[in-house]
Design brief:
Layout lengths: L1 E2 L2 H12 L4 E4 L6 H8 L5 E4 L3 H15 L3 E5 L9 H10 L3 E7 L25 E4 L9 H21 L3 E6 L7 E2 L21 H9 L3 E5 L9 H7 L5 E5 L10 E2 L2 H5 L6 H7 L3 E5 L6 H8 L5 E5 L11 E5 L3 H6 L10 H22 L4 H11 L5 E4 L3 H6 L9 E4 L9 H11 L4 E6 H6 L14 E6 L16 H7 L8 H7 L2 E5 L2 H13 L5 E6 L5 H12 L1
Parallel strand pairs: 2-3, 2-4, 4-5, 5-7, 6-7, 9-10, 9-12, 10-11, 12-13, 13-14, 15-16, 15-17, 17-18, 18-20, 19-20
Antiparallel strand pairs: 1-8
Helix pairs in contact: 1-2, 1-5, 3-4, 3-15
Length: 556
Amino acid sequence: MLSDILHAQQVLLLFKKRAVQHIVISPGSRNAPLTISFTNDSYFKCYSIVDERCASHFAMGIAQQLKQPVAVVCTSGSALLNYYPAVTEAFYSEIPLIVLSADRPPHKIDIGDGQTIRQQHVYANHILYDTHLEMINSLDDQEAMATNERLINKAINVAITNHGPVHINIPFEEPLYNTVNVPKVDPKVVDPIIETNASIPSLFIDRWEKANRKLVILSTLNPDVFTQDQLNLITSDPTVLVISEVSSNIRHEKIIWGIDTLIAPIENDEDAIAHLQPDMVVTIGGMIVSKKIKQYLRRFETQYHYHIGNRRAYDTFFKLAGHIKTAPTHWVDQLSINETSDSYRDYWLQFFNNYLIKRTDYLAAIPWSDFRAFNLIFDSLPDDIVLQLGNSSTIRYAQLFPMNPTHTVFSNRGTSGIDGSTSTAIGAAVAQDKPTVCITGDLSFLYDSNALWNNYIPANFKIIVINNSGGGIFRILPGEKDNHTFDTYFETTHQLDASHLCKMYDINYHRVDGEDAFAKAYEKFLNDNSKPQLLEIFTPRLENDTVLLDYFKFLK
């Protein structure tokens, strides 16, 4: 059974032929032709999520794991506006999300009908491809059918090849609920053109070979981008210092994993800063988390910055010399190794290792705080999990700890907003078999609390909420603190907890108020897989910033 509306049939059949299988639907009336068609075809895996903001992040989590297009379907009007946060995140994180928005016919826009807005090009600044289908009332309308066929194919192809969101706006006229048993159309597939690896420019090779201090920054990457042999190769060059972020999913003994731990203590040491200054910077991956490395590299006249990979290249340091659109593995395989005895790499590895020795003493001495809680969490997470990190404080604290090499790490670092972290994590958990642990802050969790209004949460899904009674990240930023304006409009202090939400959504709740209670609650939290679990850890609001800032002072 499928809709009798011909252009709805075109969408259904092309999605099926192109293996777009996961469809996240938010209930509505105008999208009934799509809902009826998708849910009555056993090929599709359909999910019903009422809150469109949560639905789109949930879909993005599935696409993040599968690395394949996932569709979201909504009714007309304000519904598709609630997709916008996920659309922008997918745009900057380069995740293939397909938005299918139902609409009124063009002649019914701006005449006063309810749930009607100007939907065409609504995502104009953050979409890779945006199209509006033709209404087809008869099989005789071959021109409109051919147009739609081309537009739908192009949307799917762009999502696949350009790695990002696309929008198909689809007008429907009533009646919306009529069905047929056999489709009346048979749209043709237009396969995408896949680009092969580009060659490495000779100018880049020349500059690389001449540079004695090369800094390679690995930011957000999918797991297993490099083989162990390739990591061994790039780290064997003494003129190359490789630093990585937690979201790079890369660990290696000769790669510095703590960018802020390396840089923060030497911020005002001009000799050390000058020695760290590279002749050449190469970035690989998505958005860089560390604000310190961005500020540092903007200070100096580093001659060249190249970005390697098919992801977009950003002029993050205002020194971008080129974008080499090739797989990072292909680039590494072309590298020549410098045999110089002057080791830029070893100097800074030793510098970093000295810090690691000192940090052990600091971590052993600090009181109960965010920092202490994160230390305990990362020390005792189980092996072989998917770790989903929230934004603001969570991802920044995670940068201060070595990650377990059996973990795969993800975070919404495209726009870096707090919205949708939990919804994305649940979508990711649905899309693969490994246990998923989501670590998030209290404001981020509360902001996305409708994520729990979801019938698909796996029983082994776990959430850790660090509740410091507000937006703790604002306490480490410059500015006057502890007055009415700061408490109310910046930090937004509160006395809420997650216990009542957990009761409503049938999630096991565990509360930790201090270190003495942590071990017992944490063990129950990790070992109970009968239903989803939430561990809420309360830390002292007024002490967390001091403990964190003193860490960098201690290393100095």
